[in-house]
Amino acid sequence: MPRELMALQMYAEYAHRVDDGRIREWSELFADDGVMAVRGEEHVGPKGIYAYLTKARVDGEPSTARHLITNVRVDVDGDHAAMRADFTHLRVAGGLATTEMVGAYRTRMRWHSDEWKLVRHEVSFLLDLPTN
């Protein structure tokens, strides 16, 4: 499969793993030195990123939320890729879907062996409603 297509599939894999509750697998999308920058904090490496997300989520417990990732652009240059996309985060409860977050991803990746790894993933918000 071409690297460009594999890079595009990274965002789909990112959303599916976190929405399915596969938090450890989701954190393993990051390089050992990968950074997730969100809400003014930076979390480093799969272990640090896993620790951050499991403060609010239980590994193995599927979410009632879904990440919708749109307007994806990828630029691949050899073993490096830069991506950007918009996202909407919906929560389903009581038969209704509520928009909780709207924002953008800015992501850099590095080719490692036979797959892309997230090197820096920045999350910015246009809408970030408090959740219970």
Write down how many β-strands occur, each being a DSSP E stretch of 2 or more residues.
6
Radius of gyration: 14 Å
Residues in β-strands, percent: over 45%
The major beta sheet can be summarized as: 6 strands, mixed
**What is the distance, rounded to the nearest whole angstrom, between the alpha carbons of the first and last residues?**
41 Å
Descriptive report:
This protein is an alpha+beta fold and 132 residues long. The chain is built from 3 helices and 6 strands, in the order ααββαββββ. A 6-stranded mixed sheet has the order 2-1-6-5-4-3.
In short:
The chain is an alpha+beta fold and 132 residues long. It has helices at residues 3-19, 23-27, 45-53, and strands at 30-38, 41-44, 65-77, 80-93, 96-112, 115-128.
Secondary structure topology:
Blueprint: H1 3-19, H2 23-27, E1 30-38, E2 41-44, H3 45-53, E3 65-77, E4 80-93, E5 96-112, E6 115-128
Parallel strand pairs: 1-6
Antiparallel strand pairs: 1-2, 3-4, 4-5, 5-6
Keywords:
132 residues; alpha+beta; six-stranded mixed beta sheet
